[in-house]
Amino acid sequence: MLSEGSSFLKGMVLGGIFCLVLSLLGTFRAGIPSQIEHLHHHLKPHSKEELQKLSQTQMSELTEQVRVYCIIMVTPKILVHWAAANDTWSKHCDKSVFYSSESAKALEAVDLQEQDEWVRLRKAIKHAFKNAGGLRWFFVARPTTFAIIENLKYLVLVKEPSEPFYIGHVQKSGELEYVEYESGIVLSYEAMRRLVEVFKDEGKCPERSKALWKLSEEKQLATCLKYSGVFAENGEDAQGRELFNKKSVGSLISDSMAQNPSDVVEICCSDMAITFTGMSPSQMQVMMFGVYRLRPYGHNFHDSLTFLPPKGSDND
Amino acid sequence: ASQLFKNGVVNQNVIGCFCSHYLIIIQFNRSVAAELTQQVRLLCWVLTGPQFLESRAKHVHATWGKHCNKVLYMSSEESDFPTVKLNVTEGRDQLYWKTIRAFQFIYEHHLDDADWFLKADDDTFVVPENLRRLLSQLNTEDPLYLGRRFRPFIAQGYMSGGAGYVLSKEALRRFVKGHDDGSCTHFSDVEDMALGRCMETMKVTAVDTRDERRRQTFHAFPPDKYLLKQLTKSQPSHLLYEFYERVQGPGCCSDLTISFHYIRPVEMYMLEYFTYHLRPYGYKYRFNPEPRPNVINKGFLIKKVLSSSKIM
């Protein structure tokens, strides 16, 4: 009796150790720096010189084509950020729609009546695609992100929206490359169309996953897109600087002061940056002044496209 | 004329013509900012001290300092930084002495190096290009004094020290003369107000530095203090001293802002990033002021050519 019991115990202990080692290895693998496995694509905007070669007609067509539908996912819990986004950067979207988990009296939104974040995202995407009108580019963000929509347009300027694009700051988890939600997700019309299609497939892209461990919405999105042949691309400028940031300007600068004290701003931060995250509503108001107004007199930029300021706005 | 030939090759930015006995050289394709830098020479001096070189002055030098034609860091000690050693001691009550000695030093050694003279703190952020634009419409031989105008104590107002203030060449001469002949004294250690008293005594005119839309260009506080629409009814304390009508919210601040104050190092680089780097592609700014007509005029160009004898 005793010997059987001790074998059983030994077996249990061995099995337990084996499981522990396996799970440790799993986490260790995810920590491997991305330099070793560098498979995702890098998407850069066209150079300004190349853009100047385009004709006037081509430029007008591009201005039409590059219009953006902003899908902003809110909850009443983050009402102050919702209000801030409403009063700041979202005014620069050609169409901005707030999608909420439940209705809030203070602000206008499409009430999805859904608590699950992934289901909410699916519903919002389906709604946006259906109501796109002539718009061909989509930007998904939470109101804690600050976006410079003009620079988003510059990034996708000569890209075909009838081709699948899925752009942002790319991260890797195991085999899956996904765009981080926090710093904003850009989707072309074709990517949206494929998504809406694959949403119907409960096998590949389930609405409510039966798995024990639920993946985050950003990873579920990436999985569904991957099944449709759409892969994540990292948005960068010509110097390789990130365009989609999940830190605030202050945070990036702080880090840069420690790492590159002799060239703080040039190294860390792109002239054509698109998003920053983790900023307070007050910081967003200051951002509007910093981005859309404050500048030194007498510097000439010969941009190929013109984007007009939004009507009825006083902080840009 | 020396710019016609650059490195032995004809400078493509310049064309010349012999037109009615004068060689007229017209420069184009050069940014307006570059033109202004040449024509409106700005000397910036920064009020600092040995204990602030690493923590503050260093970051001024890494950001806006280099946009001045000349920048001097005024301290009580010499250092590698480099600083100018003034005959003063450190301390809040020594600020006006430091200011007097700094202007005297500049008068003695740098009067001909610049057209205008800016005083700033080591926690002031300045946009020299926007200051030059303002100054380009004024004559430095007039006695003029510019900055963020405050009201009490002095009838014509005085300029906030922290927001930075500018003296014309004539104003500088009068300031130094005033302290030489006893018309101006160190009657107070409140630097900005005391200097304002001297300006009034020496009949130097305080200038309205607001832009074409009546928006302020010099600011005595960081941007968030002015830009956020206040919810409380009571007047925020920082606006009580204002000479002009107080504006809170986006109308507070000109697009072509010249300065902010109480700027910590991280914010120095942030403002540098917002001003000179980050921009919205293709955006048509709402405020597009006309270039000031005095800047590039025929008379100036012709004079420039005649005075250089390299070609003629």
UniProtKB/TrEMBL annotation, chain A:
Subcellular location: Membrane
Keyword Cell division: no
Keywords: Membrane, Signal-anchor, Transmembrane, Transmembrane helix
The keyword Transmembrane is assigned to this record: yes
Gene Ontology, cellular component aspect: membrane
Membrane topology: Single-pass type II membrane protein
Broad class of where this protein is predominantly found: membrane
GO molecular function: glycoprotein-N-acetylgalactosamine 3-beta-galactosyltransferase activity
GO process annotations (BP): protein O-linked glycosylation
Sequence intervals crossing the membrane: none
Gene3D superfamilies: 3.90.550.50
Superkingdom field: Eukaryota
Signal peptide: none
UniProt similarity note: Belongs to the glycosyltransferase 31 family. Beta3-Gal-T subfamily.
Protein name (record): C1GALT1-specific chaperone 1
Organism: Pygocentrus nattereri
TrEMBL record, chain B:
Entry keywords, A to Z: Disulfide bond, Glycoprotein, Glycosyltransferase, Manganese, Membrane, Metal-binding, Nucleotide-binding, Signal-anchor, Transferase, Transmembrane, Transmembrane helix
Enzyme class at the top of the EC tree: transferase
Job of this protein: Glycosyltransferase that generates the core 1 O-glycan Gal-beta1-3GalNAc-alpha1-Ser/Thr (T antigen), which is a precursor for many extended O-glycans in glycoproteins.
Compartment(s): Membrane
Family recorded in the similarity comment: Belongs to the glycosyltransferase 31 family. Beta3-Gal-T subfamily.
Pathway connected to this protein: Protein modification; protein glycosylation
Chief localization: membrane
Species in which this protein is naturally found: Pygocentrus nattereri (Red-bellied piranha)
GO molecular function, one term: glycoprotein-N-acetylgalactosamine 3-beta-galactosyltransferase activity
Subunit structure: Homodimer; disulfide-linked.
Keyword check for Nucleotide-binding: yes
Protein name: Glycoprotein-N-acetylgalactosamine 3-beta-galactosyltransferase 1
Domain Fringe-like glycosyltransferase: 44-209
Keyword Chaperone: no
Upper taxonomic lineage: Eukaryota, Metazoa, Chordata, Craniata, Vertebrata
SUPFAM superfamilies registered for this protein in UniProt: Nucleotide-diphospho-sugar transferases
Reaction(s) the record says it catalyses: an N-acetyl-alpha-D-galactosaminyl derivative + UDP-alpha-D-galactose = a beta-D-galactosyl-(1->3)-N-acetyl-alpha-D-galactosaminyl derivative + UDP + H(+)
CC annotations in GO: membrane
Cofactor annotation: Mn(2+)
Coiled coil region boundaries: none
Topology term for the membrane: Single-pass type II membrane protein
EC number from the UniProt entry: 2.4.1.122
